[in-house]
């Protein structure tokens, strides 16, 4: 029976970001195929013991993991001086020795985390070891402990592009650092065609496109005339979304007809100004299905950022036309005839929204294209077939 070690650094049981959706569906695939999975993540030191135990209970109860390891990233700070001399100083030396000084890719690893991870490798044997994110690549640096396992890096993103706006960004060193970390693995998973192309050009390891995946809506979709919201926007409060929502409300929103019903979901609401109190603000939703089903159009006014936009894929699944900027189509296999109306110009962006609301034939055509794009590229059955080839 196949045995897999799967490392994902965030709390997967809090489904508030697209990367967690991807990780959850990978665990569902493993469970569906009867694989034995050891799930490894980072302990949330601030949340307390009960919070971490709940994570373990949820994964085991859902048959998503046989063993759950929540590893410490830092030691307790009982004495600041002792902490610095015993732990922090050695972590700093580790960073200086291991990583290029001018690379902008961060690492969240510590010697304490690496030691705990090595202990897992010493006491277990795996067929596959899957690590999420390039910044965690050094977890497999000690090849003697891998026991012949095939190693896979699930990139989730192209980090060089992700950090290009940082102060003192060094393209050459950062890109070389990312490629070097990727080449530590036997196989590299890219989440978008764009990233697959870049990695294929420069990596010596095998590169495979493993796109975003999710279930198609289980229930029948609400007819257009019965939908409650004209527009829906879903977003966390990362810097890319903050810049994007500000652009939308400053440049686009004033051009839209008065009285449009807009639903905004997620922590991005913390950055929607008080001037727009008439907007439906929902800070957290356990499930987005009813909101997408009750919406006519999804918007994605992204101005920067990399990788597939999960909010776009979710909207396409529900047959919602998406009005977006050119960044909104990142990760889609086709840039036209995909259910998205695209413009980086505020006036045209607003016109696209108005046209969809007023032109029934245009709306129906874009809705059909949205469903087709999801069905052909992002339905879990598509990605599960790709994974079948990985674990043949």
Protein described:
This protein has 392 residues and is α/β, with parallel strands linked by helices. It folds into two domains: 3-210, Rossmann fold (3-Layer(aba) Sandwich); 224-377, Glycogen Phosphorylase B (Rossmann fold, 3-Layer(aba) Sandwich). Helices cover 40% and strands 15% of the residues. It has 13 helices and 13 strands. The chain has helices at residues 18-32, 49-61, 80-98, 111-123, 159-162, 171-182, 193-202, 239-252, 289-293, 310-317, 346-358, 360-377, 380-390; strands at 3-7, 36-42, 67-71, 128-132, 150-154, 187-190, 206-209, 229-234, 262-265, 280-282, 295-300, 322-324, 340-342. The strands form two sheets. Strands 3-2-1-4-5-6-7 form a seven-stranded parallel β-sheet, with helices on both faces. A six-stranded parallel β-sheet has the order 10-9-8-11-12-13, with helices on both faces. Strand 2, helix 2 and strand 3 (67-71) form a beta-alpha-beta unit. The longest helix is centred in the N-terminal third of the chain and has 19 residues, at 80-98. The model has no long low-confidence stretch (mean pLDDT 89).
């Amino acid at each position: 029976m196949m045995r897999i070690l799967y490392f994902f650094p965030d709390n997967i049981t809090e489904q508030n970001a697209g990367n967690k959706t991807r990780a959850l569906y990978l665990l569902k695939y493993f469970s569906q195929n009867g694989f034995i999975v050891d799930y490894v993540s980072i302990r949330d030191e601030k949340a307390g013991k009960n919070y971490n135990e709940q994570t373990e209970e949820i994964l085991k109860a859902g048959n998503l993991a046989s063993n759950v390891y929540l590893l410490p990233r830092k030691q307790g700070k009982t004495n600041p001086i002792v902490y610095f001399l015993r732990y922090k100083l050695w972590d700093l030396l580790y960073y200086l020795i291991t990583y290029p000084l001018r690379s902008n890719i961060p690492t969240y690893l510590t010697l304490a985390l690496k030691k705990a991870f090595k202990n897992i490798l010493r006491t277990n044997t795996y067929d596959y070891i899957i690590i999420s994110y390039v910044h965690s690549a050094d977890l497999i640096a000690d090849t003697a402990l891998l026991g012949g396992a095939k190693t896979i890096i699930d990139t989730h993103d192209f980090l060089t592009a992700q950090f290009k706006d940082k102060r003192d960004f060094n393209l050459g060193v950062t890109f070389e650092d990312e490629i070097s970390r990727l080449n530590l693995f036997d196989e590299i998973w890219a989440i978008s065609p764009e990233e697959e192309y870049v990695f294929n050009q420069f990596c010596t390891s095998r590169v495979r496109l493993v796109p975003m995946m999710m279930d198609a809506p289980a229930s029948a979709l609400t007819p257009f005339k019965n939908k409650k919201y004209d527009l829906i926007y879903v977003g966390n409060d990362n810097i890319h979304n903050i810049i994007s929502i500000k652009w939308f409300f400053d440049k686009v929103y004033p051009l839209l007809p008065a009285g449009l019903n807009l639903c905004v979901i997620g922590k991005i609401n913390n950055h929607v100004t008080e001037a727009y109190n008439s907007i439906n603000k929902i800070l957290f939703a356990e499930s987005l299905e009813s909101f997408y089903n009750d919406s006519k159009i999804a918007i994605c006014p992204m101005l920067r950022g990399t990788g597939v936009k999960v909010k776009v894929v979710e909207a396409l699944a529900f047959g919602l036309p998406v009005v977006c900027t050119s960044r909104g189509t990142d990760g889609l296999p086709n840039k036209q005839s995909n259910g998205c109306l695209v413009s980086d110009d505020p006036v045209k962006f607003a016109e696209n929204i108005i046209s969809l609301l007023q032109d029934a034939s245009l709306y129906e055509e874009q809705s059909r294209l949205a469903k087709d794009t999801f069905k052909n590229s992002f339905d879990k059955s598509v990605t599960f077939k790709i994974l079948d080839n990985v674990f043949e």
